[in-house]
Amino acid sequence: MSRELGQGSFGMVYEGVAKGVVKDEPETRVAIKTVNEAASMRERIEFLNEASVMKEFNCHHVVRLLGVVSQGQPTLVIMELMTRGDLKSYLRSLRPEIENNPVLAPPSLSKMIQMAGEIADGMAYLNANKFVHRDLAARNCMVAEDFTVKIGGMFFALQI
User: Fold this and answer.
1) Is 33 annotated to bind ligand?
2) Which of 86, 121, 135, 146 is catalytic?
3) What is catalysed by this protein (predicted)?
4) Please, are residues 51 and 102 in contact by the beta-carbon 8 Å criterion?
């Protein structure tokens, strides 16, 4: 684990490098989700349930689960790294009134429409696979290095 990315629903999320988790990539930058050591058994089960739900998904607009490490403590969930973070924080960082903002240009109208389409595609995929997200929000949409937006936060996903 190379650096802390922030607090997730169950514990800290770190950036790291995993070997052999993606075909044809010897090393892959990943997000590593942890569960707090003080978490209750119920919270630990919910944490693993999120991973269990995500392992079913294979869509370019849904964050990919790459693996789970359940031996030892803490339990780790290895996911695709979304380098620009969640959509809410990303868009807020573009506000002109933010101090020390390196004057990043906000997305164009066409890019925002594309982002909305990517979110819709991810949700359509979940629907086609009989899943309901139940907490779609900008904080649960993640932004990749190339500005692709993917659905994350599967804690509330429910199979119907």
Assistant:
1) yes
2) 135
3) L-tyrosyl-[protein] + ATP = O-phospho-L-tyrosyl-[protein] + ADP + H(+)
4) no
d(CA 11, CA 36): 5
Q: Residue ranges of the chain with pLDDT lower than 50? A: none
Number of domains the chain is built from: 1
Q: Specify if 159 maps to a domain.
A: no
**Quick check: is 110 in a domain?**
yes
**How much is the mean pLDDT over the chain?**
86
Q: HSE-up of 126 (CA within 13 Å, CB side)?
A: 27
Cα separations in angstroms, 156 against 35, 74, 135? 16, 22, 6
